[in-house]
Design brief:
CATH topology: Jelly Rolls
Strand content: 35-45%
CATH superfamily: Galactose-binding lectin
Number of strands: 16
Structural class: mainly beta
Distance between the termini: 58 Å
Helix content: 10-25%
Number of domains: 1
Largest sheet: 8 strands, antiparallel
Shape: globular
Order of helices and strands: HEEEEEEEEEEEEEEEE
Amino acid sequence: MRKQLCVLSVLAVLSFGMASFGQERAQTNPGSEPKSVVLLFREDFKSGVPNDLPMTGDLLTNPNLELKLYGPGAKAGKDPLTGLRLDNEEDAANPGQITSYVWSGVTGGSWAVLLKEKNNYLDLRGPARVRWRVRPRGLHVMHPVVKLADGEMFVADYGEPSSTYWHESEFYFVDITRWRALNPTTVAEAQRKPGEPIWRDTIDLSKVDEIGFSDLMGGAGHNSQGNSGVDWIEVYGNPVKR
């Protein structure tokens, strides 16, 4: 009789655990994951403008996007030649080709550039991915950053390493192994709430409000001293009407 009671108790605990796990999975990945994706947007940043401009929304080329800047280093301070800039220069690996790009060399602190699609949230599950052309330098590493519909911001542990020349790359969100909550004011790691893990293996990417990038550092000047640049970015996923 005792054995039967023990078996029943174990089964009850397992059933409860499986039900809780199922509910957690449902909250993490609501609905079925999409099997295909479309190009949600591409942003090239404006060319043919004066060099070394402070980064503002009117320097976007996609009319469906809004520019969102975060962190103490993002905007110009009392010195006008600070903050994130839009630079234009010849591509060293492609003579005669001018590249316009977001540049972090004179940022005085951490920063993040996020892009908000005006009409849709972004479903970045399934085969959703990002393609971009970037050039981190020195110890700077470029990370993808997302802001969810509930206002929480996360940075991925995926990073593009330092490079002498511009390079194109692509990554799938499903291959990102960990995420860290980010404080949008400081663009540094957020303090975890009671009971929350420091790192999250998965986050709910079914309804992303904004997406962008950061190297989580201030700039160290021009040339290869330590800075990051982004020439263009493409985001593939599925639209979710706002």
